[in-house]
TrEMBL record:
<comment type="similarity">
    <text>Belongs to the clavaminate synthase family.</text>
</comment>
<keyword id="KW-0408">Iron</keyword>
<keyword id="KW-0560">Oxidoreductase</keyword>
<dbReference type="InterPro" id="IPR042098">
    <property type="entry name" value="TauD-like_sf"/>
</dbReference>
<feature type="binding site">
    <location>
        <position position="315"/>
    </location>
    <ligand>
        <name>2-oxoglutarate</name>
    </ligand>
</feature>
<feature type="binding site">
    <location>
        <position position="148"/>
    </location>
    <ligand>
        <name>Fe cation</name>
    </ligand>
</feature>
<dbReference type="InterPro" id="IPR053447">
    <property type="entry name" value="Alpha-KG_dependent_hydroxylase"/>
</dbReference>
<keyword id="KW-0479">Metal-binding</keyword>
<dbReference type="GO" id="GO:0005506">
    <property type="term" value="F:iron ion binding"/>
</dbReference>
<dbReference type="InterPro" id="IPR014503">
    <property type="entry name" value="Clavaminate_syn-like"/>
</dbReference>
<dbReference type="GO" id="GO:0016491">
    <property type="term" value="F:oxidoreductase activity"/>
</dbReference>
<protein>
    <submittedName>
        <fullName>Fe(II)/alpha-ketoglutarate-dependent arginine beta-hydroxylase</fullName>
    </submittedName>
</protein>
<dbReference type="Pfam" id="PF02668">
    <property type="entry name" value="TauD"/>
</dbReference>
<feature type="binding site">
    <location>
        <position position="174"/>
    </location>
    <ligand>
        <name>2-oxoglutarate</name>
    </ligand>
</feature>
<feature type="binding site">
    <location>
        <position position="311"/>
    </location>
    <ligand>
        <name>2-oxoglutarate</name>
    </ligand>
</feature>
<feature type="domain" description="TauD/TfdA-like">
    <location>
        <begin position="226"/>
        <end position="316"/>
    </location>
</feature>
<feature type="binding site">
    <location>
        <position position="297"/>
    </location>
    <ligand>
        <name>Fe cation</name>
    </ligand>
</feature>
Length: 338
């Protein structure tokens, strides 16, 4: 399910030089000109990186990959932001690391963002935030973040979720897992493929958590609110019956009242996933790539200090087909889904 490679010293220096070159030509990792050129830069990455990501992209390859070995200078990256809103401006060292994140991801597809999440930014900060300790959000801490498919509620969700670790002094584990469909009975499998489940948006996409940009992205928030109030019924499994894809988010998910077979099937799938979770404690310089159609991910609980030394991840969403979201994207931001 998960493989890992670590950069050699030579490859680490090559990646660093490439990212510094890109930083000298483009002001930010989400600069439109850089995003257009990112695939060209990415093809100059070391062969070991390109080969590992080509394996992840293949349908018969692993579903998760960790590439370790990037140099993260702790003092140069500055303190962990108090929230995603405080993640700008970006220090030069962080800019170069964000470039690596985008370049790696460009070998899998196109980086994109959400108008309803972190003000439409393409590169997210995942940091503990005061007041969110017990929330089912990436900004939580004390409560475990329950495993889930990223943006399971949305038809244009990412094919891959990519997390880069900048700081993790407590060794907090990201959890990763999948479903072995052979554990399901024929009846459970048939039920799981039927549209009998409702998934609502997680709170990070709601207007209350994005008050500063709500008016600017009104169309996206209105659409998300409709999804929250009247979610469409969807299957949990889809695709090939013998090798299905997965969409699930138990914290924001239910079945129709009285549909006991669907409830039992959802519980059975949840038990199977829970029993096969793997802890992945990311170290600074680690980048984990998660196939969002095959795996779920979450996070173990921890106690935040809020002193600038807390766990700090960067996150991007990657799609293999940017065109599928064309009807929902902002007219002036071709990589932001509203």
């Amino acid at each position: 399910m998960l493989t890992r490679i670590d950069l050699s010293a030579e490859d680490r220096d090559a990646v660093a030089a490439l990212c510094a070159e890109a930083a000298g030509e483009h002001p930010a990792a989400d600069d439109p000109a850089f995003l257009r050129e990112a695939p060209l830069f990415a093809h100059r990455l070391p062969r070991a990186v390109r080969a590992a990501l080509a394996g992840l992209h293949a349908d018969d390859g692993p579903s998760a990959l960790v590439i370790g070995g990037l140099d993260v200078p702790d003092e140069a990256i500055g303190p962990t932001p108090a929230s995603w809103r405080e993640g700008r401006p970006v220090p030069p060292a962080v800019h170069r690391l964000e470039n690596a994140l985008v370049l790696y991801s460009s070998l899998l597809g196109d980086v994109f963002g959400w108008a309803t999440q972190q003000d439409g930014r393409l590169v997210h900060d995942v940091v503990p935030t005061r007041g969110h300790e017990d929330e089912q959000l990436g900004s939580g801490s004390t409560a475990p973040l329950m495993w889930h498919t990223e943006e399971a509620f949305h038809p244009c969700r990412a094919d891959y979720v990519v997390l880069m670790c900048l700081r993790n002094p407590d060794g907090v584990a990201t959890t990763v897992g999948g479903l072995d469909p052979s554990v399901l009975t024929e009846e459970e499998r048939r039920c799981a493929f039927e549209p009998r489940f409702r998934i609502r948006p997680d709170k990070s996409h709601l207007e209350a958590y994005n008050a500063e940009n709500a008016d600017r992205h009104r169309e996206g928030f209105d659409r998300t609110e409709r999804m929250n109030e009247e979610p469409d019924a969807v299957p949990v499994l889809f695709g090939a019956p013998h090798d299905p894809f997965l969409q699930i988010d138990p914290a924001y998910m239910d079945t129709a009242p009285g549909d006991e077979p669907a409830r039992r099937t959802l519980d059975r799938i949840g038990e199977a996933i829970e029993g096969g979770l793997t802890d992945v404690p990311l170290r600074p310089g680690d980048v984990v790539f998660i196939d969002n159609f095959r795996l779920v991910h979450g996070r173990q609980p921890f106690k935040a200090r809020y002193d600038g030394t807390d766990r700090w991840l960067k996150r991007v969403n990657v799609t293999r087909d940017l065109r599928k979201s064309s009807a929902m994207r902002l007219p002036d931001a071709v990589r932001v889904v509203a």
